[in-house]
Amino acid sequence: MGAVCALGANVAECWSRLSRGISGIEPLPDPGNPPYKFQQGAVARGFLPSEHFTEKELSMLERFAQLAAVAAREAIAQSGLSFRGDLAERTAIITGTSVGGQFAEEEGYMRLYRENNPRVAPLTIPRTMSNGGASRISFEHGIVGPTYTISTACSSSSHALGQAFWMVRSGAVTAAVSGGSEAVFAEGLLRAWEAMRVVSPDTCRPFSVGRRGLILGEAGAMLVLENWEHAVARGARILGEICGFGMSSDAHHLTQPTAAGSARAMRWALQDAGLAPEQVEYVNAHGTGTIVNDVTETEAIRSVFCSHADRLLLSSTKSMHGHTLGAAGAVEAIATALALEHGLVPPTANFLEADPACDLDVVPNTPRHAAIEFAISNSFAFGGLNAVLVMRKAI
Fold first, then answer.
1. Does residue 283 share a domain with residue 189?
2. DSSP per-residue string spanning 192-210
3. What is the pLDDT of residues 340-350, one digit of tens each?
4. Mean pLDDT confidence for 179-184
5. Interatomic CA distance for residues 227 and 71, integer angstroms
6. Contact between 354 and 127 (Cβ < 8 Å)
7. Are residues 96 and 30 in the same domain?
8. Nearest-5° angle of CA 255, CA 257, CA 259?
9. Cβ(383)–Cβ(348) below 8 Å
């Protein structure tokens, strides 16, 4: 696993803060002119591109692609895999991103419409394209197998991981590098989120009374998925197991979720894993911190788990790393795998008071030790596109 986000520049740093309930949400470095109506964000402040790329490389890589590449480097190095010979062809790269390269696009528009300059940067198109991260990972590591990018808003990297999981499980490939990345702090994008009125003016308080919306974050998060027998044969350190994946569409509304659609994805994920709901002990919730989403997710969980919902541990790590849009599913898959590995559930931070409409054990503010074997990670996106991963503690 590899990760870069507001919680740290690698997985160890991120887990150190997650496991202690320390939030990476801070004042925005640029308040905007005029000031944005929200002034908090989860910026990856410890990520300095010049430490990872040459000046020439940076001219071709948007920030979201840089985050993807650096996270992949960590994941691949930790995996111990070397992509030589047949494995180069038998490895897939599947990434997810929601908005891709916003900064190059914005720079081009500034030249055209503010400066009245018809000449935009010659690398605007390759910097903007959403597959920039996947392509960079391929170049760096010599992986020549199936390589592509999925864009399904906030479910992007969960969909990417699910596709990678199915490809490895089916035998189509031996391994896959999969996850997502997002860099959201471009002025135009921030103004667009401001206009939606779903970003909190203070902080992210999922499932809590007093919650006022989501907090935007940036991140790169990648996992190396590998055929179990192949990993065991080479003596790999196995960090966890993806054992099921489900996805669905609400077929309802662009921005308003339905409990039925979310529940359908959870049921199909459990069916794919061959698990009964009672076997799941932890849910890493989508948990955006908006009024509607948190209530809808609670309803969906109760629909799937029935009375067992009262025994589930549930938390939203977005309360600490922010909503990283297309990278969220991968960041949260890593958080879920680490919770299973360490027997420690990260908390829902910034919690004030229980909301009767969100009547689940959301592990408020303080992490909790729990020996859990199975967990699910939920991602529910604008457009009504849902993706759920089922994960198991490594045996």
1. no
2. HHHHHT-B-SS---TTBTT
3. 999 999 999 99
4. 98
5. 21
6. no
7. yes
8. 180
9. no
Give CA–CA dist 185/182, Å, rounded.
Answer: 9
- Return the number of other C-beta atoms located less than 10 Å from residue 53's C-beta: 17
The residues that bridge with 314 in the sheet, in sequence order, are 283
pLDDT digits 0-9 by tens, 268-319: 999 999 999 999 999 999 999 999 999 999 999 999 999 999 999 999 999 9
Q: Which residues pair with 386 in a beta bridge?
A: 248, 380
Number of domains the chain contains: 2
**Residues forming the active site:** 154, 286, 323
Judged against a pLDDT cut of 90, whether residue 395 lies above it is answered with no
Q: What is the pLDDT of residue 385?
A: 98
On whether both 216 and 188 belong to a single domain, the answer is yes
The CATH number covering residue 288 comes to 3.40.47.10
Output DSSP code: residue 282: E
Q: Are residues 76 and 163 in the same domain?
A: yes
**Percent of the chain having pLDDT more than 70?**
100
Give the pLDDT band (50/70/90) at residue 133: very high
Domain enclosing residue 158, as ranges? 2-233
Backbone angles phi, psi at 243, to 5 degrees: -125, 0
